[in-house]
Write a structure and sequence with these properties.
By secondary structure, the chain is of the alpha+beta class. It has ten helices and eleven strands. 30% of the residues are buried.
Length: 292
């Protein structure tokens, strides 16, 4: 698959688009568009790609993306229910030329500038405003616009925000480069649990090993094997929190043949050991309040 350009057509009665999406599974290709996008995942789980960032996602995942930032959500594993989300999209000038520079919108302006790298909000934040997303779908045009601004203002005041896309990611990829990056994504998704060599990966995109290594590092601002290990560790995290597999089995199931190396990579990407990660998740999940 390639990073597709996706034109967004707003509804005739509104200056922005707010839509409820429900599918058997999320299978959108890696794509981009000139609009801002705020996505609230209602039900689904899998892997989220934003620029050169790769993370697991699940229910109550709330992401704000700036214009032209390639992204997609891909389901992994068995989906017990349909995949659903509320997606809001708007152009930079949807309120007229220069609106964002007015002093009343200073906080929103700062938020949208940060969104060029992709922003992930904490689950406690998404739970607080979940009902506002449902409400947004039903309101008349004027009230809908006011509520969108209220949501953005509320998000702009949140302190617990994660910037997703690392410095150095290149947005301006040509058709061939997009094809190659997406071939890499798909190959890793299908083969991450097995041994993957640089030679095999380079052959998949019709490159020499040396050229592929330079190409991937230049585009993604990280080496291929860093990206591969990042994917595998995210897959291991999913196994640790969703199954009763012991750490050693999670290690082997995600393509690692060495437990010490697995531990080092896990610590590198998550900052703690696999077992501590699992225990911390259970603790947080137990004490997380239900906010309406």
């Amino acid at each position: 698959m390639k990073a597709h350009y996706e034109p967004i057509v707003p509804l005739a009665s509104n200056s922005f688009k707010a839509a409820f999406q429900e599918k058997k599974e999320f299978d959108y290709p890696w794509h981009y568009h000139p609009e801002y996008e705020l996505t609230y995942i209602l039900s689904s789980h899998g892997v989220r790609y934003v620029g050169n960032n790769i993370e697991n996602f699940s229910e109550d995942d709330l992401i704000l993306l700036g214009p032209e930032l390639p992204h997609c959500w891909k389901n992994t594993g068995i989906q017990k229910t349909s995949s659903s989300a509320i997606v809001i999209q708007w152009k930079e000038d949807f309120l007229g030329e220069g609106w964002i520079k007015r002093c009343e919108f200073e906080a929103i302006h700062s938020l949208l500038k940060l969104s060029n790298k992709g922003l992930k909000f904490h689950k406690s934040t998404s739970l607080k405003i979940r009902e506002k997303f449902y409400k947004l779908l039903k309101l008349p045009s004027f009230e809908k616009l006011i509520l969108l601004l209220e949501i953005l203002q509320q998000l702009a005041k949140e302190k617990n925000v994660q910037v997703l896309c690392e410095q150095g990611f290149s947005y301006n990829l040509n058709y061939t480069d997009n094809e190659r990056i997406n071939t890499v994504y798909q190959y890793i998704k299908d083969h991450y649990s097995k041994r993957i060599t640089l030679r095999k990966m380079a052959a998949e995109v019709n490159m020499s090993e040396e050229y592929f290594s330079r190409f991937f590092s230049k585009v993604m601002n990280k080496s291929f094997f860093t990206f591969l290990n990042e994917y595998r560790i995210n897959a291991a995290c999913k196994l640790l929190i969703e199954t009763d597999l012991p750490v050693t089995q999670a290690c082997y199931s995600c393509g690692y043949g060495s437990i010490p190396f697995f531990y080092r990579q896990f610590k590198k990407f998550k900052g703690l050991s696999p077992l501590t990660y699992k225990l911390n998740y259970k603790k947080i999940n137990t004490i997380m309040p239900l906010i309406s």
